[in-house]
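User: Sequence in, structure out. Go.
Assistant: Echoing your sequence, followed by the structure tokens.
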Amino acid sequence: MKWMYGKQDWKTRERGLENCYLMTNGLGGFSSMTMTGAVSRNDHALLMACTTAPNCRYNMIHRLKEELLTETGDVLTLSTQEFEEQTPEDGYLHLAAFSYEDTPIWRFLVNGVEIKKEIGMPQEENTVALRYEIKNRSSRNVEFVLTPFFQFVPKGADLLPDQEIVFTKGAVESEGMTLHLRTNGMIKEIAETEEVYFYRYDVCDGRRAYGHARANHQIRLQAEAGKQVVLEVVYEMEPSKNSAQTIIEQTKADRKQLEETAGFTSEAGKMLSKSARQFVSKRESTGGDTILAGYPFFEDWGRDTMIALPGICISTGQFETAKRILRTFAQNERDGLMPNLFPEGGNEPLYNTVDAALLFINCVYLYYEATKDMEFVREVYPVMERIMDGYQSGTKFGIHMDTDGLICAGEGLAQVTWMDVRVGEILPTPRHGKPVEINAYWYNALKIMETFTEETETSRYYAQLAEKVRDSFTEKFWMPEKNCLKDLVSGTDADRQIRCNQIWALSMPFTMLEPEKERKIVETVFEKLYTFYGMRTLEEADPEFHPYYEGAMEKRYMAYHQGTVWTFPLGAYYLAYLKVHAYSERAKQDVKEQLEVLECALKEGGIGQLPEIYDGKNPVSSKGCFAQAWSVGELLRVYEQIEKKKK
């Protein structure tokens, strides 16, 4: 799927800042700027390097200034950028087209000169490659001038006032880091120049409005009248000899291989299979792989990994990657819990999640279903047993099994489900008690353990407990007057709120409800919560519904799970819809048609990606992370179901 944009997509400078590309290096580093080449967030960068995978990220090259000089002295700016005070650069007026499939490509046309710009980023290297094809069909000689602006600061930070950025022959140095330069152009040192940027897409989220970067050299290349020349530029932290063209070709080849391995037939499925790989990164501290939750903000979290992994790795045929990630988590299980966050350095992982451990068991099952790798199941089976024991006898954060067989979780200000945001001493969505999706995961885990155990008595025990959980769940969660499930069993008003969490009680491999109840839930969820771009976290009729996600952090967090549309639960909804309609061809066709609308989301925000969230009232433009792992992963599972599987 090749995404094409033209002048109609940047009629104004502001419109040209709406969408951005994303390339990642498998270390946690990335390259991401808008389709007009601007930085509209402090996290945008031509090169965001990662010195210790996956979270020690540094904004090395923040942005590029691009100019075309004529022999008569005219200076034509090709780059686009908003600043704090100085006049904006409006190079988008010369931008004829932008496209993204496997690499971002810009095409400029100015006074008879065509310029094609392309970027590549290799895997497991802190490197970015630029290639400019300049066709001078005018009657005058021209000179192309490239001025990179540097930061050398941790991701999200700003340039230090007294920070020195030094250019020496073939390298830029600052803060103990070195960035090597290779180019066929002429390098010219210039007086240090500082710019102050206006970050439009940070301001709307209540983040800081301005940031700085400095330049100390330019790269130039002349193009005589009637001639064609090529400028190649490579910036890298680890010296190599690969040309920009080689790096770009390898970037494309790597993505094509991912597409072939995944084996999807639809263009959207193919694109998402390649986008999925952008979340997979090395993790130096564990020596394995991990899944980054989202770009540009998030790190790797246990809950997000366990939700995203089935689609990101298993649906795409990346089985060895899935096994490496699961093995890393298995080695870090503590007290029956899985890490929710792997901090850098010598700190211990954080375990504040009730979801991740149960979803780990689900991931092992889905991996087995795809590979029949019973050897790996036996390897991690003791870990799964410890999880089941911990949840039954009780572990941290109030997680324990009640006398009715259902799981309780949460205490104090600790939120351990995915609706875990906290504003000071306020929990906007307190879910202490028996959350609906956690008990769906619990039943699913019991049935998986019944399947995997090789001891008859143990199998019988899990089967009997699962039956008890099923009876208790149906009795305590079903609301016949609303034709759906409670969100929580806690004895508070929050119990009866209609939320999207109930959809996982239908979409797991093993479920508890009779078919008629499942059909009613699907229809209720569709009526109250469904949008083409995601699921509302709370029905609009609820007094606590927040229609918009905007403003300062406190205001955003109050809306985060109170109506805001999240993309990833849409995967569970479609899987549930297919299930209650017996995976019929008609049901698959219905889902295909609805997914066609979702394809519009692939063109907006993060190009070729699916975002984190939208406003609850009227989901128009994506918000939060422009690329979210569990959004991509869960929708890939739907594409897998309708394209690859037969029930």
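User: And one key feature?
Assistant: Residues 456-477 form the longest helix (22 residues).
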